[in-house]
User: Which sequence fits this backbone?
């Protein structure tokens, strides 16, 4: 039976201000969209996805994220249904979580089975890597014109076709669809490669493409992160001379004659009556770090920013809005994640709470409320906390080198980094392989030259499965690193095998989620050969798109940053010898209580910012539906738009764990 939670007000727990009604008066009443036809009396859809927000407490003495945002929590419990019994996809990351919510499809049907980046086998048997964050129609290989390394779509579904786009049912119903930093629905990057985002959306040698070539930072502000997919008949696109064709060549039933506005440079004037900037909920112009009006970057999508965009779109007659809010755990000045009760973390949650107070008051003044609006609030992944204990909200973010004999302080915070190669037995030479760095790393064994035999791959699996290491949060003595392992057959069970066979890993290693597993030593004191790397805390330094790391055979291979999530129940998958057998509630406790909040590092050229970083995922998501509870978000939105006839193959997402 599904557990429903009706939480009382937590205002008494927190010295925080309530709703802020004064900001709404300066904004006009929402413009009606004449041709938008939704069902069940719904006139507006507002879906907000957090990058990690906790319903439950990470430490008993510190209020949870939602407890520290009473404006949001009270709105949910006072107007809808709050449930903690929604379960994540595997492997759970930002891209996979958001795109499953948007499409209602398991990863094997929407295409992104490993995120936020993934490996794939090239025709010569070597491994390539791709980011999962690309515009909807991009290919896996977006560098070559014909996608010679892998020509299939990044968003791939049955038959090798492009996954049906989530905005189509709305635009066909006459509704403009606004996207605020929503994964793959907006331009995600400024790549000008033959199949890159700028080339796909705007075309080679267009003014936008040239700006991206010559002024990439400004193009990021102007064209990335914000979009409106316009309704049949033109919608708000009819007010702009900058609308571009909304091209979906594989869309069931065809999708011709639709347009879109891509980027704040074109969206902002359309929704503000000609202004270059949209204002946040504090009435400040939304700008990039250089002061230019437009998209502030994914790190900059604080609640006040995303909610300001949503309100402005709704007031301009864009009745369907999907938005992303960046992680409240992240400190973008210190470039790290924060622990429970830490001052910067508490302050950021307070700011988020104030933004929601202003947002709800503004919507109420606009006549947008539960009588005519479907609200959905959820989280794409949710970091669990890996750390010790703190009685006063102070945490140690310094590195703790376990291999060198250091003892971590009681208030240590951060993942345990471990080199996979150092887990292998002395004297054993593995076949050449690449790994997607993660707490659940996917392993790609090279097929170049003389391909490895099945026995070779099995031996590598078993050697990694039997490894022990020290996790200071568990035991000062070595304990099993791995909890579960899935080979190519086992990967089908958690929906990790999609329509692109080149993207299927040889196996996936689900470790104790305190770990972050790589194939290189990343600390200066751990560079000596065969030195076990087990370091805790500190900023992330795992390789990014343009970084390189040493492979097991000594060659260099490009890496992508990655992380993973341990499933609640993988009872049908292999368990290493010596690992504790856990099932049912015990498994959920083990796998749900020790996960990582990884500290962050600055964004650098070619890398991703925090939305694109990989972190450990909570299995529990808070979901509010404006009128009644449904099991999954796609069913909720389908209720608003009516029967989704254009996706006959789409099935409702089931819970990944059953009681």
Assistant:
């Amino acid at each position: 039976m599904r557990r429903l939670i009706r939480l009382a007000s937590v205002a008494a727990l927190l010295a925080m201000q309530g709703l802020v009604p004064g900001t709404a008066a300066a904004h006009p009443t929402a413009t009606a969209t004449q041709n938008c036809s939704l069902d069940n009396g719904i006139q507006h859809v507002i879906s907000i996805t957090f990058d990690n927000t906790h319903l439950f407490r990470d430490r008993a003495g510190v209020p949870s994220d939602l407890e520290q945002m009473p404006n949001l929590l009270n709105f949910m419990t006072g107007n809808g249904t709050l449930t903690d019994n929604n379960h994540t996809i595997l492997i759970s990351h930002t891209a996979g979580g958001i795109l499953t919510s948007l499409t209602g499809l398991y990863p094997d049907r929407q295409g992104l089975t490993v995120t936020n980046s993934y490996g794939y086998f090239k025709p010569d048997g070597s491994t390539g890597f791709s980011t999962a964050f690309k515009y909807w129609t991009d290919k896996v290989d977006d560098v070559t014109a014909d996608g010679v390394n892998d020509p299939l779509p990044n968003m791939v579904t049955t038959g090798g076709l492009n996954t049906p786009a989530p905005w189509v049912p709305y635009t066909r119903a006459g509704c403009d669809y606004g996207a605020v930093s929503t994964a793959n629905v907006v331009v995600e990057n400024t790549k000008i490669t033959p199949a890159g985002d700028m080339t796909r959306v705007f075309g080679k040698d267009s003014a936008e493409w040239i700006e991206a070539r010559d002024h990439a930072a400004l193009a990021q502000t102007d064209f990335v992160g914000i979009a409106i997919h316009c309704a049949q008949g033109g919608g708000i696109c009819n007010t702009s001379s900058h609308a571009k064709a909304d091209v979906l060549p594989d869309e069931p039933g065809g999708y011709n004659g639709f347009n879109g506005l891509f980027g704040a440079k074109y969206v902002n004037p359309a929704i503000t009556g000609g202004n270059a900037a949209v204002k946040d909920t504090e009435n400040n112009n939304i700008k990039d770090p250089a002061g230019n009006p437009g998209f502030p970057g994914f790190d900059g999508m604080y609640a006040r920013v995303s909610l300001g965009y949503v309100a402005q779109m709704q007031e301009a007659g864009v009745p369907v809005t999907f938005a992303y809010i960046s992680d409240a755990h992240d400190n973008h000045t210190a470039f790290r994640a924060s622990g429970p009760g830490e001052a910067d973390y508490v302050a950021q949650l307070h700011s988020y709470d104030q933004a929601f107070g202003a947002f709800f008051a503004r919507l109420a003044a606009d006549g947008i409320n539960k009588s005519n609006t479907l609200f959905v609030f959820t989280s794409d992944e949710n970091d669990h906390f890996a750390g010790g204990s703190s009685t006063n909200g102070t945490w140690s973010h310094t590195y703790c080198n376990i291999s060198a004999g250091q003892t971590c302080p009681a208030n240590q915070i951060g993942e345990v980094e471990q080199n996979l190669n150092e887990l292998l037995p002395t004297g054993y030479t593995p076949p050449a392989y690449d790994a997607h760095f993660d707490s659940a790393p996917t392993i790609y064994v090279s097929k170049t030259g003389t391909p490895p035999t099945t026995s070779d791959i099995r031996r590598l699996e078993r050697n990694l499965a039997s490894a022990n290491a020290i996790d200071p949060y568990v035991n000062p003595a070595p304990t099993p690193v791995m909890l579960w392992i899935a080979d190519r057959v086992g990967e089908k069970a958690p929906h990790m095998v999609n329509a692109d066979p080149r993207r299927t890993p040889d196996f996936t290693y689900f470790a104790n989620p305190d770990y972050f597993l790589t194939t290189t030593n990343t600390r200066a004191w751990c560079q000596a050969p065969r030195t076990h790397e087990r370091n805790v805390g500190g900023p992330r330094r795992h390789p990014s798109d343009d970084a390189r790391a040493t492979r097991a055979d000594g060659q260099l291979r490009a890496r992508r940053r990655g992380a993973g999530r341990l499933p609640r129940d993988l009872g049908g998958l292999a368990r290493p010898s010596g690992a504790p057998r856990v099932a049912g509630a015990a498994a959920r406790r083990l796998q749900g209580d020790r996960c990582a909040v990884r500290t962050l590092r600055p964004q650098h050229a070619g890398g991703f910012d925090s939305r694109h970083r990989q972190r450990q995922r909570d299995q529990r998501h808070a979901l509010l539906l404006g009128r009644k509870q449904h099991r999954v978000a796609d069913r909720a939105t389908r209720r608003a738009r009516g029967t989704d006839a254009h996706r006959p193959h789409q099935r409702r997402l089931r819970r990944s764990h059953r009681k």
